[in-house]
């Protein structure tokens, strides 16, 4: 009896400590959400601030302040040329080149065949603002650094506090265990002192429990059946997960963060995985698709996750890996022609005998990618979200209505079939989506 | 009335005492479990120290190990393009129009590519001429991935660079420029205007250049005859759809006669419409596809063919012609002449006799008839070879007058009858270069092997028919370090253009006119429409006629033809549907393709008539497992002896034998593919008819013949046929009988009784396949198309012999004696008193007559996709099931291989994977090497060992069509649904579609009164239906 009590108490202690842990950890997460600090930039003059937004809107695709990109670096450009000349150049560079202006022709010769867009919509004031920004860039970077420093510190701080809380917890648990042992000991002592016999009482009189068990044939039978059934249950469970790679999260040759691309930057899935619209495969984007953007994004400037070591530097190095693979010489802004294709590790491996077509689901049915692939926009590292088993496929086919609106193909068949089944909306299964040969051939 | 003909698949079946056929009838499932694979090796078994106990331990351990190993998934890499080509989207097929012109086969085709790999050949329906592909063209995509291709330029067996080859060749050519020795270009027929121009430029630069074109199987007679009468070295073109009476004397018009490609026009005229269909009379010695399709086939020996042709001319023109023919042949000739005369301009006559006189006579007769099917204004350019020049070349080589020999697309050391002389002469040639895809008989002997690309990797153009231009474009980047002949010529003439630029310039300058190059390239074909030229051309032709006409002396041609005699047996050399001239000998699809007539795969053989076989004691017999064995015979022509196995061919003219070209290659071949014997040494003087002596040789040959694998088992009504007369006059119940069954002691139509409840199939798509037995010529393009589309494995000769062939689609060939028809009965009764109308496979005499000249019917059979499928109900694991769309599904991953379904299938269309046919060294065909695997269709599963497979009605294609429509938000148009076989069928015999679309062609065909289902009385309700074969027996 007392033993049972003991067990009760230990479990209770465990429960309490769990509650403690939970309260601590929730407060911990709360802390984290509060952490991000606002980047408050205190500008001396209004001009560069406006200039910055104009620069980002109009120029940043081709120009950086301190780096050559499609066009030259623009830091201090206001000092290099006449203001009037710059107005003309920015509004119509080709016209200026054609007019035979020496500076313009020299620029063209250096940078051709890249043609600078014309910006007739920019007023003199706008251009002045931009130039103010490009000529006086320092004000913006330091605050930026401060901000990242601050957030960095913040996350680091939370990381440390995490560890502290954990060690504290360990200590608390340790103390609890010691206390328990002590309480137990004293209780025993008290019992002994009071002459209460506890342990030796049961031993002699009764049959050993296993003998009693063996003699009770009914019990033996029941427990054998129970064991067999549960054994079968677990064996089945084990076998059913063979080949199911839900949660498969391999390390990729380039650390590509879907969180940054699809989440932070809200790039549409199908911008990169364009063949999902028309093909059976969603397609891993070819590197030239990456370069559509990364030609002008050579470094990472977003948030960092220092707990996992995802610093800006880390991401920028990953972008460098892309440049190496595609053969892009960032310094000289040109392709070297030496490429080495990236060997991604395939995550979603449907067996050969199952046919799956993305375009059927993406274009025809209009299903969100997330329905099968999970919250990709939150995945720092991509993993397999769904089990990709036949049961999973079939369940969805049973539950999902066919998207017939505006699709002439479905008009007749839907009308006839829904009448036959007496429903308003047909599920994919009723449309024939459970037939073996639809997926297996 | 329905014909009560008796059909038989093999001569053996006609022998009532043949116990093996009887056994086979009882034992419908002839494939045996291959226990010999593990129990056959008795010695090893006995010497092994492994005890039963050990064995069980091993089994236990390996099972555990295997299941543990299976738990860990492999890491699969995906490698995207660095720069993805704009046109390529992974998972979406692209089609390119191109042209095959390999010197033997010419056709405008579409090539399906996936991720930049050509995987399938389709017909180019935009092409007005030769837009259809035969079995060899369909299979040519696999030859691209031949693992034995030569991978770069070679000198004396060592790989060298192209620069080395160029400098050596150019140096030598320049050295020869001043000398008296010739530079000879020995090439295939290119029929290419740009190549001709280029060769002329090459000749101009180096002087003393001779360009000799060489066709392995010569058509010189027809070319010469046409040249005499019309001034061009070409073939007259025929449109058989416009002919009501077709008389062919030895011309295999459905085979490779004059370059082939006539089957689609022919088939159009064969479908009875408005009570009319063409009548085809065939005089021939070997049983050919054309003879098999003819309404009346007269077996005549080659020398009799000549006499018959002369007599035919005589009867048509009322001239008396000498020469003698057996009376029944003479009657047949007279009857043919009567029908030709009656048909007038609706008649046409063709001949395959390799004799300029005979060919000239035919041209004259067609012109005199004013035949609508006959076209000489725009002749065909499919053969340009000149046998005389080739023969002269060999002599010149031997006398040391040839300084350089550059070959392209030919393999004379294999195909020349006097190959040994050629080889000897080659030693005296200072520079020899062979442009070749393989290290074959010729290129292993030349100084240099210039690795040539496959046509799917090359640029080119061709003028298949005058004014009908085609373009060839690469569909894949060259797999190896190859360079095409034309590019080399450009390089050697110091022209820095590529051949592509050269063609483009040539076309823009002289062919396209105002039309766009890109459009022509996109279409693959371009018809030069130059009305002014058209108007001028006939005038020119007429004047040419007038000038040239006297040059062809009808009288002397008649005289020489009529006097043709033969002293002994005559050999007709022919090309097989599967192998052609043999250049694709290393193609396993073609090797395993059963010949449409003999149904033998992996072999060539000598075909002899039953009478000759009996005389020479040559035998064919079936052994217990259904395999065919045959005697060997020594075939001797002018002292050259080739020992070949014998096939007793019903319909072979007595006194004649046939041997096919294209086999017996030994160089550049996988050992499995070195089958048959080379018949080219018998092709002396480029004459396909030779006097021959035949003698029985010792031994017995084991054929891989699929004929007796599944016997009819008494189900005679699997083929239905009738005559045009009955078809036109009688009600369809009489000639297309619906079988009756007994229900409650009343006879009711079998279609009204059913064991199963029917499902409503009126909603959505319901696929049906229609097969018109009238239009099906048995060409077999569908068989290869099915292989390519569905990743059907090749199993090899030994396995085919054991009935383990994997063809999803087979073309059954049935023989029947034509004597069961009433009028023929009467005729025959006069001849043979023994003939009875009992309908049993009676006496020996009847059998003999039947075997002498049977009628033939072809019937493509694939899974019938029964709505009430017997296979589905017996599957213990429900691996095969039915869909609403009418397709019978087969889930391979669910199949456990009990084979109940195959046993329960009345049509015998299910195929069992006895072995793993990929990645298995025992089956060293294309699925066993990385190169060959590139041909696999990524949309279709590659099956593993131990599962059943069968025709899926190309569900991957129907699903794709549906998906395309869904994506575009439209309904599916009629004609969009296709299967691989229906798309490959150029004769229009196979039509596929959705019968629930009431406006579709298939719905119309299903209502046709010729429609019937196979074995209707068993109530399987198939989704494949056939059209009753109608024969035009109208003699008048």
UniProtKB/TrEMBL annotation, chain A:
It comes from the Bacteria. Residues 1-30 form the signal peptide. It holds the Pfam family Cytochrom_C. Keywords: Heme, Iron, Membrane, Metal-binding, Signal, Transmembrane, Transmembrane helix. GO terms for molecular function: electron transfer activity; heme binding; metal ion binding. The chain crosses the membrane at residues 164-183, 218-239. Residues 46-138 form the Cytochrome c domain. SUPFAM superfamilies: Cytochrome c, Multiheme cytochromes. Residues 134-153 are annotated as: Disordered. This is C-type cytochrome. It comes from Leptobacterium flavescens.
TrEMBL record, chain B:
SUPFAM superfamilies: 4Fe-4S ferredoxins, Formate dehydrogenase/DMSO reductase, domains 1-3. It comes from the Bacteria. InterPro entries: 4Fe4S_Fe-S-bd, TAT_var_transloc_signal_dom. CDD domains: PsrB. Residues 767-797, 854-885, 886-915 form the 4Fe-4S ferredoxin-type domain. PANTHER family: GLUTAMATE SYNTHASE [NADPH] SMALL CHAIN, GLUTAMATE SYNTHASE [NADPH] SMALL CHAIN-RELATED. This is TAT-variant-translocated molybdopterin oxidoreductase. It comes from Leptobacterium flavescens.
């Amino acid at each position: 009896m007392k033993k049972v009590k003991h067990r009760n108490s230990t479990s209770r202690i465990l429960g309490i400590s769990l509650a403690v842990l939970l309260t601590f950890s929730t407060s911990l997460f709360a802390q984290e959400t509060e952490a991000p600090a606002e980047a408050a930039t205190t500008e001396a003059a209004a001009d560069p601030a406006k200039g910055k937004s104009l620069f980002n809107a109009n120029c940043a695709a081709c120009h950086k302040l301190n780096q050559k990109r499609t066009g030259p670096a623009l830091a201090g450009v206001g000092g290099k040329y006449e203001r009037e000349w710059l107005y003309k150049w920015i509004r119509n560079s080709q016209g200026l080149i054609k007019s035979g202006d020496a500076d313009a022709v020299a620029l063209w010769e250096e940078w051709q065949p890249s043609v600078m867009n014309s910006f007739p919509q920019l007023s003199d004031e706008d251009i002045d603002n931009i130039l103010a920004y490009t000529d006086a860039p320092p004000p913006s970077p330091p605050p930026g650094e401060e901000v990242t420093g601050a957030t960095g510190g913040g996350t680091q701080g939370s990381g440390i506090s995490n560890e502290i809380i954990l060690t504290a917890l360990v200590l608390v648990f340790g103390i609890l265990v010691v206390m328990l042992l002590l309480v137990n000991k004293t209780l025993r002592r008290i019992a002994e002192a009071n002459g209460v016999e506890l342990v030796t009482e049961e031993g002699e009189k009764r049959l050993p429990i296993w003998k009693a068990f063996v003699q009770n044939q009914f019990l033996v039978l029941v427990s054998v059946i129970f064991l067999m059934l549960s054994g079968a249950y677990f064996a089945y469970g084990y076998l059913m997960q063979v080949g199911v790679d839900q949660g498969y999260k391999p390390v990729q040759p380039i650390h590509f963060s879907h969180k940054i691309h699809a989440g932070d930057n809200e790039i549409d899935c199908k911008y990169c995985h364009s063949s999902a619209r028309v093909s059976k495969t969603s397609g891993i984007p070819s590197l030239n698709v990456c370069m559509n953007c990364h030609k002008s994004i050579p470094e990472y400037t977003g948030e960092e996750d220092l707990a996992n070591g995802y610093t800006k530097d880390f991401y920028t190095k990953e972008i460098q890996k892309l440049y190496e693979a595609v053969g892009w010489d960032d310094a000289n802004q040109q392709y070297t022609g030496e490429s080495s294709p990236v060997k991604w590790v395939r995550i979603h491996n449907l067996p050969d005998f199952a046919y799956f077509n993305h375009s059927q689901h993406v274009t025809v049915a209009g299903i969100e990618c997330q329905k099968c692939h999970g919250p990709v926009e939150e995945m720092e590292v991509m993993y397999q979200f769904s089990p990709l088993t036949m049961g999973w496929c079939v369940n969805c086919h049973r539950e999902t209505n066919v998207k017939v609106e505006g699709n002439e193909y479905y008009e007749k068949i839907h009308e006839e079939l829904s009448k036959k089944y007496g429903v308003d909306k047909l599920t994919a299964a009723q449309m024939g989506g459970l037939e073996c040969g639809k997926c297996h051939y | 009335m329905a014909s009560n003909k008796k059909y038989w698949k093999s001569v053996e079946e006609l022998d009532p005492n043949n116990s093996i056929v009887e056994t086979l009838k009882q034992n419908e499932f002839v494939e045996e479990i291959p226990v010999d694979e593990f129990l056959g090796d008795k010695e090893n078994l006995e010497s092994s120290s492994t005890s039963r106990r050990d064995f069980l331990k091993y089994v236990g351990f390996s099972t555990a190990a295997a299941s543990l190993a299976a738990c860990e998934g492999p890491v699969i890499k995906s490698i995207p393009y660095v720069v993805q080509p704009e046109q390529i989207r992974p998972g979406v097929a692209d089609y390119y129009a191109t042209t095959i012109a390999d010197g033997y086969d010419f056709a405008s085709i579409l090539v399906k590519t996936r991720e930049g790999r050509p995987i399938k050949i389709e017909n180019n329906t935009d092409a007005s001429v030769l837009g259809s592909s035969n079995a060899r063209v369909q299979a040519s995509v696999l030859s691209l991935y031949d693992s034995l291709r030569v991978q770069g330029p070679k000198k004396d067996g060592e790989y060298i660079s192209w620069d080395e080859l160029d400098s050596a060749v150019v140096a030598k050519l320049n050295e020869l420029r001043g000398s008296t020795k010739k530079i000879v270009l020995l090439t295939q027929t290119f029929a290419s205007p740009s190549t001709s121009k280029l060769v002329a430029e090459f000749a101009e630069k180096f002087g003393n250049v001779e360009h000799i074109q060489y066709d392995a199987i010569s058509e010189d007679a027809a070319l010469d005859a046409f040249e005499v009468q019309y001034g061009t070295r070409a073939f007259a073109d025929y449109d058989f759809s416009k002919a009501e009476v077709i008389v062919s004397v030895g011309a295999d018009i459905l085979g490779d006669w004059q370059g082939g490609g006539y089957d689609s026009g022919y088939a159009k005229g064969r479908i009875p419409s408005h009570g009319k269909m063409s009548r085809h009379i065939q005089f021939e010695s070997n049983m050919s596809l054309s003879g098999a399709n003819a309404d009346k086939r007269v077996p005549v020996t080659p020398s009799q063919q000549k006499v018959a042709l002369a007599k035919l001319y005589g009867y048509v023109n009322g001239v008396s012609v000498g020469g003698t023919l057996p009376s029944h042949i003479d009657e047949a000739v007279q009857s043919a002449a009567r029908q030709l005369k009656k048909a007038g301009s609706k008649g046409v006559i063709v001949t395959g006799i390799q004799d300029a006189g005979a060919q000239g006579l035919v041209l004259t007769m067609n012109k005199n008839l004013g035949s609508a099917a006959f076209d000489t204004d725009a002749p065909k350019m499919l053969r340009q070879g000149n046998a005389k020049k080739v023969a002269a070349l060999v002599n010149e080589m031997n006398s040391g007058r040839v300084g350089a020999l550059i070959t392209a697309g030919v393999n004379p050391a294999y195909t020349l009858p006097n190959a040994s002389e050629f080889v000897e002469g080659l030693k005296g040639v200072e520079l020899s270069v062979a442009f070749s895809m393989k290290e074959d008989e010729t290129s292993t002997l030349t100084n240099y092997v210039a690795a040539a690309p496959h046509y799917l990797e090359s640029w080119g153009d061709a003028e298949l028919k005058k004014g009908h231009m085609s373009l060839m474009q690469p569909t894949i980047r060259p797999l190896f370090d190859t360079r095409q002949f034309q590019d080399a010529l450009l390089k050697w003439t110091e022209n820095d253009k590529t051949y592509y630029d050269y063609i483009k310039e040539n076309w823009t300058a002289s062919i396209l006119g105002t039309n766009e190059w890109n459009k022509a390239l996109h279409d693959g074909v371009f018809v030069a429409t130059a009305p002014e030229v058209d108007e001028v051309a006939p005038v020119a032709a007429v004047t040419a006629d007038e000038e040239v006409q006297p040059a062809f002396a009808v009288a002397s041609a008649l005289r020489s033809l009529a006097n043709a005699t033969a002293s002994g047996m005559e050999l007709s050399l022919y090309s097989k549907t599967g192998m052609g001239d043999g250049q694709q000998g290393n193609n396993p699809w073609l090797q395993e393709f059963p010949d449409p007539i003999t149904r033998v795969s992996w072999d060539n053989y000598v075909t002899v008539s039953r009478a000759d076989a009996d005389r020479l004691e040559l035998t064919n017999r079936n052994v217990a497992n259904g395999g065919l064995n045959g005697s060997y015979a020594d075939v001797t022509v002018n002292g050259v002896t080739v020992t070949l196995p014998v096939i007793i061919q019903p319909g072979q003219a007595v006194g004649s034998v046939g041997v096919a070209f294209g086999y017996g290659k030994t160089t550049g071949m996988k050992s499995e593919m070195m089958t048959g014997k080379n018949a080219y040494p018998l092709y002396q003087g480029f004459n396909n008819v030779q006097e021959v002596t035949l003698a029985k040789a010792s031994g017995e040959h084991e054929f891989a013949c699929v004929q007796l694998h599944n016997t009819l088992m008494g189900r005679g009504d699997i083929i239905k046929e009738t005559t045009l007369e009955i078809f036109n006059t009688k009600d369809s119940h009489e000639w297309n009988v619906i079988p009756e069954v007994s229900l409650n002691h009343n006879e009711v139509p079998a279609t009204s009784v059913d064991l199963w409840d029917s499902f409503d199939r009126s909603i959505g798509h319901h696929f049906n396949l229609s097969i018109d037995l009238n239009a099906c010529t048995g060409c077999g393009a569908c068989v290869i198309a099915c292989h390519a589309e569905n990743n059907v494995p090749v199993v090899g000769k030994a396995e085919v012999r054991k009935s383990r062939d994997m063809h999803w689609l087979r073309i059954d060939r049935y023989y029947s004696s034509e004597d069961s028809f009433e009028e023929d009965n009467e005729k025959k009764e006069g001849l043979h008193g023994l003939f009875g109308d009992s309908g049993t496979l009676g006496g020996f005499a009847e059998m003999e007559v039947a075997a002498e000249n049977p009628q033939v019917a072809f019937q493509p059979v694939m899974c019938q996709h029964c709505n009430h499928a017997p296979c589905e109900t017996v599957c213990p694991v429900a691996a095969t099931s039915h869909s609403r769309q009418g397709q019978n599904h087969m889930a391979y991953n669910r199949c456990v291989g009990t084979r109940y379904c195959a046993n329960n299938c009345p049509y015998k269309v299910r195929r069992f994977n006895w072995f793993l046919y990929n990645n298995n060294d025992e089956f060293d065909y294309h699925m066993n090497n990385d190169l060959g695997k590139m041909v696999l269709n990524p949309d279709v599963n590659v099956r593993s060992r131990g599962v059943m497979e069968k025709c899926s009605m190309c569900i991957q294609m129907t699903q794709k069509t549906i998906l395309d429509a869904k994506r575009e938000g439209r309904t599916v148009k009629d004609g969009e649904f296709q299967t691989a076989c229906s798309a490959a069928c150029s004769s229009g015999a196979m039509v596929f579609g959705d019968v629930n679309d009431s406006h579709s062609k298939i719905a119309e065909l299903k209502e046709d009164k010729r429609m019937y289902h196979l074995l209707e009385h068993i109530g399987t309700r198939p989704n494949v239906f056939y059209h009753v074969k109608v024969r035009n027996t109208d003699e008048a």
